[in-house]
Amino acid sequence: MKSKPFFFDLSLPQVEAHLQALGAERYRARQLWEGIYKNLAPSPKKISNLPENLREQLETTLTFSALTVQSTVSSRDGETEKYLLETQDEKAIEVVLMRYHRRHTACISTQIGCGMGCVFCATGQMGFKRNLSSGEIIEQVIRVARQLGTNGDRLSNIVFMGMGEPFQNYEASMDVIDRLNDPEGFNFGKRRFTISTVGLVPMIERFTQERRQANLAISLHAATNALRERLLPINRRYPLEALMPACRSYTVQSGRRITFEWALIQGVNDGDEQAAALADWVHRMNCHINIIPLNPTDGYEGKAANLDQVTRFQNALEQAGISTTIRVRRGIDIQAGCGQLAAEKQRNDSD
Ligand code: SAH
Ligand code: SF4
């Protein structure tokens, strides 16, 4: 049996074609689109301006959910919520909602597992399973938005920093941004998205050429090739001599700031020589460094740098005139680090 098309995988013209095939008038597609994306209806059953028989036809010819909630965990401070979701092929993915400074940020996944093998990352430790479809990524956002909506709250930011490497699933990731941007639908500004990549240079170049408006963050974590390739194996394919000019070129061509992520690992990448090498690479670049103490994972013995080390590293950069923030890891008690909950579920399932 052929499976039904998944609504969130479809563009508006595809939804229009579907409704046309059902014999409905053209404007009904907009009503459906608005009902789901603007009013966050869980299914056509709840879209009262659609005729009853059309609602039934839609329910039988389209799927409106491809993910089921397996569990929800909240951090003790109540600022972070994590949803473990299951795909139709019974794989676990996760989406995290962070609430702070009256902002609500959804951290979404783009792949099941990840093939990039960064040694300290729980998702990397799982290996690559498959790409998520644009619809599976969108449903993560919609679920968080519906949850917030129950308290009259709205999403402020969406970050592609959950499981997987978004630039390995480039087209789906860009479709997500374009579709959620539709002013007649979810109406989410492109500049409120942030894409984080491990540094796939051809994709950074493509992103630059296409003049994409989402914010760009690069997982740097080391400023010498010897160290970076030990932590992030992809550095062998795209060493710093390729990566950093691509980043600089992005800032010049887009006129926008780039963010570098730096997970600070005690005794590994927290020393003065790394800070100095980093300062050299980003000299006069329009950039910002996010320093995040490492979130410990089972598959990696490195420890988080302590507060003294974090401050020392930050001071070294600030003295070189580089803007930095220390991002406190939120939700550590619920393993809200990248991929940690889904990795744990996978381990339990295989026990
Ligand atoms: N694949 C993309 C996006 C997902 S990871 C990327 O790598 O950029 C989101 C961020 O979390 C990345 O900066 C990643 O390096 C970081 N990260 C992964 N595991 C971590 C850990 N254990 N502690 C701190 N940061 C981690
Ligand atoms: Fe993949 Fe990003 Fe984790 Fe590296 S840090 S393994 S690229 S998800």
How would you describe the overall organization of this protein?
Strands 1-2-3-4-7-8-9-10-11-12 form a ten-stranded mixed sheet, sandwiched between helices. Strands 5-6 form a two-stranded antiparallel ribbon. The protein has helices at residues 12-21, 27-38, 52-61, 122-126, 134-149, 170-181, 201-209, 225-231, 240-254, 272-281, 307-319, 340-350; strands spanning 68-74, 80-86, 92-100, 103-107, 111-113, 128-131, 157-160, 193-197, 215-219, 258-264, 287-293, 323-326. Helix 5 packs across helix 6. The chain contains twelve helices and twelve strands. It has two domains: 7-61, DNA polymerase, domain 1 (Orthogonal Bundle); 68-350, TIM Barrel (Alpha-Beta Barrel), CATH 3.20.20.70. The protein is α/β, with parallel strands linked by helices and 351 residues long. The mean pLDDT is 93. The protein binds S-adenosyl-L-homocysteine and iron/sulfur cluster. Residues 118, 120-121, 161, 165, 196-198, 219, 261, 263, 292, 294-295, 297, 337-338 line the site of S-adenosyl-L-homocysteine (SAH). S-adenosyl-L-homocysteine binds next to strand 8 and strand 10.
The CATH superfamily label of the largest domain reads Aldolase class I
> Rounded to an integer, what's the Rg over CA atoms?
21 Å
Provide mean pLDDT, rounded. 93
> Can you tell me the CATH class of the largest domain?
Alpha Beta
Query: Mind telling me which CATH architecture of the largest domain this is?
Result: Alpha-Beta Barrel
Number of helices: 12
- Shape from CA axes? elongated
CATH topology (fold) name of the largest domain: TIM Barrel
For the sheet with most strands, the description reads: 10 strands, mixed
- Beta-strand proportion: 15-25%
Total beta-strand segments: 12
